[in-house]
Every structure is written in structure tokens, then in C-alpha cells.
Automatic annotation (TrEMBL):
Residues 61-80 have a biased composition (Polar residues). Residues 61-97 are annotated as: Disordered. It comes from the Bacteria. Pfam families: fn3. Signal peptide: none annotated. Residues 64-165 form the Fibronectin type-III domain. InterPro entries: FN3_dom, FN3_sf, Ig-like_fold. This is Fibronectin type-III domain-containing protein. CDD domains: FN3 (cd00063).
Amino acid sequence: MKILLPPLPGQAALCLLIIALSSMITGCQEDTRASKLDTQRASEVSDARLKQAQSNLLATLGQSPTAKESQYPADNTGSPRTLAWNPPMTREDGSSLAPGQISGYRIYYRMKHKNDFNIIPLNDASTTRYRLEDMPPGAYEFSITTVDVDGLESRRSDPVEVNLI
């Protein structure tokens, strides 16, 4: 035989409140595994893109990246030196970057014996080449960044050393 006792006043409401609060607290917890994996993957994608850009840049300048890193043959035709790069397809966080979201690029350069970099702004997203023919002879270091339509600038590519003689 079961004996049912009537609930005390407010006891049912308190019970429902406790259940609702525990559900909310459980639902609001962050899944740290997912965010760590996403961050790690974004970093890997970003590093791969930077290495690809550097390899392209070295090949275009006729420099010799290591065979392991080179995906493109060096152009040793004797034509004027030109920096060339491929537009990135992802942001540093791994999210997609459509061509329409790129507003331009910045070329950072300096003579190897100097500390300060100069900047050449390229405000046209379709410009992915820059001729070095007007630069004075010397040993240079070049890096490139991408600028999006909101003015956000990527980190610099790995530097490429170029001897212009």
C-alpha cells in the first residue's frame, strides 16, 4: 500500500527551480576539447599556408628552397626579379577567407644590415606580383602580409632573403 503525502507549499516550485538551474549550469559549460582542437587545427592550416607562400616566393625569386619545401621550380630565366604569391584561402584562425574579403597586401622589406622595415602597400587584392627592378642593389629581406576589407592584417610570412645585383 502506497501512502502519498501532499507536497508542502512551495516545495514543488523549489524542486522545479533546482532542476532547471542544474540543467542551465550543465548546458553552459564549455567543451574545452573542441576549442583546443579547433585552435590547433587553425594553427596547422595557417602554418601550412605560410610555408606554401614562402616556397612560392622563393621559387619566383629564383632562390632555392630545400627540395622538401619546394613545390614549384625556380625561375632562372634571367628575367627581372619579381615577388609573387598566392592569395590565402584561410585566415590565421582557420576560417575561410574569400577573395572578396581581401583588400590588398603589404610588402615588408629591409636591407639585411638594417633593423627597420619599409612597407610597400598594395591596395588591390588582384595584385599578387611586385617587380623589384627599381630597387637599388643589395641584400634584402622580404615578408608579405594580407589585409582584409576590415583592415585586419595577417602575420608576416616567413622572411625571404634576396640578393639584387
